[in-house]
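In response to a reviewer's request, we include the raw inputs and outputs for one of the modeled complexes. The six entities were modeled together in a single run.
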Amino acid sequence: MYLPLFILSLLVSLYPASAGDFCVADLNLPDGPAGYSCKSPAKVTADDFVYHGLAAAGNTSNLIKAAVTPAFSAQFPGVNGLGISIARLDIAVGGVIPMHTHPGGSEILVVIQGQICAGFVSSANSVYIKTLNRGDVMVFPQGLLHFQINSGKSPAIAFVSFSDPSPGLQITDFALFANSLPTEIVTTTTFLDKATVKKLKGVLGGTN
Amino acid sequence: MYLPLFILSLLVSLYPASAGDFCVADLNLPDGPAGYSCKSPAKVTADDFVYHGLAAAGNTSNLIKAAVTPAFSAQFPGVNGLGISIARLDIAVGGVIPMHTHPGGSEILVVIQGQICAGFVSSANSVYIKTLNRGDVMVFPQGLLHFQINSGKSPAIAFVSFSDPSPGLQITDFALFANSLPTEIVTTTTFLDKATVKKLKGVLGGTN
Amino acid sequence: MYLPLFILSLLVSLYPASAGDFCVADLNLPDGPAGYSCKSPAKVTADDFVYHGLAAAGNTSNLIKAAVTPAFSAQFPGVNGLGISIARLDIAVGGVIPMHTHPGGSEILVVIQGQICAGFVSSANSVYIKTLNRGDVMVFPQGLLHFQINSGKSPAIAFVSFSDPSPGLQITDFALFANSLPTEIVTTTTFLDKATVKKLKGVLGGTN
Amino acid sequence: MYLPLFILSLLVSLYPASAGDFCVADLNLPDGPAGYSCKSPAKVTADDFVYHGLAAAGNTSNLIKAAVTPAFSAQFPGVNGLGISIARLDIAVGGVIPMHTHPGGSEILVVIQGQICAGFVSSANSVYIKTLNRGDVMVFPQGLLHFQINSGKSPAIAFVSFSDPSPGLQITDFALFANSLPTEIVTTTTFLDKATVKKLKGVLGGTN
Amino acid sequence: MYLPLFILSLLVSLYPASAGDFCVADLNLPDGPAGYSCKSPAKVTADDFVYHGLAAAGNTSNLIKAAVTPAFSAQFPGVNGLGISIARLDIAVGGVIPMHTHPGGSEILVVIQGQICAGFVSSANSVYIKTLNRGDVMVFPQGLLHFQINSGKSPAIAFVSFSDPSPGLQITDFALFANSLPTEIVTTTTFLDKATVKKLKGVLGGTN
Amino acid sequence: MYLPLFILSLLVSLYPASAGDFCVADLNLPDGPAGYSCKSPAKVTADDFVYHGLAAAGNTSNLIKAAVTPAFSAQFPGVNGLGISIARLDIAVGGVIPMHTHPGGSEILVVIQGQICAGFVSSANSVYIKTLNRGDVMVFPQGLLHFQINSGKSPAIAFVSFSDPSPGLQITDFALFANSLPTEIVTTTTFLDKATVKKLKGVLGGTN
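The model returned the following structure tokens for the whole complex.
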């Protein structure tokens, strides 16, 4: 029971190429509330769905001794519109990913190497902390403050995936001290004293 | 051209009462990812859709001189499942709603009385601050750090609505200092020194 | 433990400015099913998130003695993509916001001044009506017919927020009588007699 | 290259039966904002996904000479959670489906027999009307007022599908006249005169 | 109580034409994750919401003796953004719609003529099959393998609606054998032998 | 500027514990379209957000020489409602994850060890294949057929995350041959000959 090609092809000839299957971001077109505009399907190749940028370790030669390397829509256009993205965490001995949130999505972390102490705080101010070893998985609910600390004696690596192709990242200290947010507003809204704010602004390059 | 009741009623007799129109929360039943279970439509009355709890000013006789009075699903079961909720802000002279986020939704604020200086910080650490007067509206995108300060000489009142019936509220200082989050973890993940952390933990009732 | 700016900045250098945090509408670009295209983040300022158009009372010198002043995406581009919007209702003594629906979202109303009798009708034709005073809140589920009447002896003001940045507004009488919908179709689909339809079409500027 | 059953089965033994594939409604359990609770997958059979109730014509022996027969979640539990539902329209000669909305979803109609004049009105009060013949398809955007009239000389049949398993149905005349909505409120919010309202309330069984 | 047109029109003058009501696809503009860009509302007419392409039978003069005629966004731009679409199935005697999935949405089928044996398989590999007659409805949950066979003695016609304006269609045999997917990969990932794969590739026009 | 605990606590006393932050699945309660019911927040601990089941390699001592170990809602209740989940792939030398789909979500894969040849086929039957090495990432759009083959000379490990806490898994061969789907229906809907179907049913434990 064989089907001649020339006839069967009629069945699918009305379907446009891949419409709706995926929407590889064209970063040169306008974006919208749901993400970037789509690259023409005709120009999409397998390379659009693969990202090599997480293969190498991030540079942890900094004082937090850590690096976050994202593969979000802006770096990895293939995830645009697919509700998922990923990033690599490298945390050297003594390193830390400071307290932060992702405004747009939940995060799931798997430890690839080393030991990580991770935790988050809920709206009710409850604290959820665990020490994770190789292969352990932890999930961080959307928008809540969380952190990751290398609690071991060797460099730690983790991959973190997000329920959003562009989840955002707001590091609390950077939001408070690494910009022009006036010192008076910081002290008023955080209960920190002026000297502390000024000191951290100095370190993080903040002004005002 | 009149329709006898007994006949016309056949047209709608197959429709269950209000199914899908609304889902007033029954707080005694289990909740799920989309919200609380629904109260039986037969028991729902107009009272379920009205909330009187925002009519009176919140108590601002505290050191932040401010109060947030929510009408979220847990207080106002009528909003369950409807993608919207509201709260009242009372900010006395010199008062402040400290730096916080809502993990689950965007916020729109309208000033009813007084003057409020409000702002938020983006993932890119950009700062967006404005002084708002009576009738002014400001929107705060989902999950980003923001604050409201009474910048006037009289008590300020505002109503804030959210794109979620249970948007959550995470006040940064409470998340960091008002619980059992270990001091060492706070210092490591915020760059604050131990003395500052200990002091704020003392004030806010935190331990460890 | 301080972090030199030049090193720490490496951590965030890979993140594009604010991508995903917000999407202020650029009304000159095409819109899509999820809303308008985004203004370039580099051009976004605090002003984009603030709207002054609701500070002044709407003009109620008309026969319904009421005004709806919206701050939807088209008027207030900052709400685009954020799942929220707001409007101001001014209802003079004896005024009314006629029976209407919002096809795209639920509504939450808070009375700022005066007294309002408000209500909605469910799919099951059940009626939910309440008289609301200053500070009272009422929620109207998505897509259902509802109304607001000034039931007091002084002008009433309310703010209404929506679970959609562009919720739409369909006033039943305008939909039926203020356009070219043929009289015969109106009578056939509403059971109203021809004279009534013709009369209202005349008043509301409808034709056919 | 064959795989012994006893070994291969290990691969899938960890997967719970059908979790997430579907959620046939158990109408005896509480419902929530996203729909009804799920029947145990172990008890689900093919019969749960099939509905025979649209095979027979609805009874059009009424004055509107029409019938709507729904296969929504409440009638056809298999569609619960699947974002789709269907209904059958029977419209006898001279019959009409009166002006109505579906608060929860968009509608797509296909004419199976006869001729139907259908239309909807937008928020901008623009009118979109077409006469449809057998096999013609028309789409009605979510929440907008629309109608269907048999414009032919033989009975008309159509199937209408919805983007929601429980889209609701609000017939404007029923919402206004077939319940206890006070006459004074109807006249005030619709501009109809008292006599017209009283007359239609009489016909449709409304009170007050 | 009549309202002069020139005054009442003030009430709605602030609302942009139809914004948010619908988004008829402009196939010449870029698409995004949520669908195509919108045609200007000013240029939209009733014709945009009607599709005649399903009125005629599809051509079943092929070896599967069947045809799928879609009215998705690409063919019927009016459904763009509305969460719904439709297609027509024509299955001649002995014909079959081969095993396939729709990656983007659930499907509801109604038999218009003839008899169809339809079924789907769940993630748990459970089989749900039913023989459907005229007027019977069956629902197929999103993303699961399913099929339709003419099990009667006359041509069968069905309409299938989807919970997505662009649900996609992946016919398993076409995905495996009608393209350049290497024979070795097909045998490795399907357990089929090389001869079978080569034979089907020959029939369906596949290479490698 | 310190705040006495007893006063500040008033500010948050109205907020229910963590409502809306997360919804750890209680597998003993009914599930719904959006996932499982929530475990009481008071009983939730850090352990609910951590999963150890992916730390050990899956058993690849089978003929496909591969194992999929999921951490979906049913195994890892902490991800319920969070829009994310994860699984571990172990593929021995010569092993393969057969052609399959996830009906409910997109997948992102990162190679931890070894070399994997992975690919997917679009609705347009286009083929997207790449050979991935350690640290490489590939994304597979929702609902499309895809596979992973160990193309290296050592065991391969990968973590795959999904945009859904319960994405489902439908292995094409299992769906076709490992159940009671009648042989005649398989041959009719796949173009495979009866002998091939019978042989694979024998291997995979299918009947009929």
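As requested, we also summarize the result in words. Chain A has a mean pLDDT of 91. Chain A touches chain F through 69 residues (CB under 8 Å).
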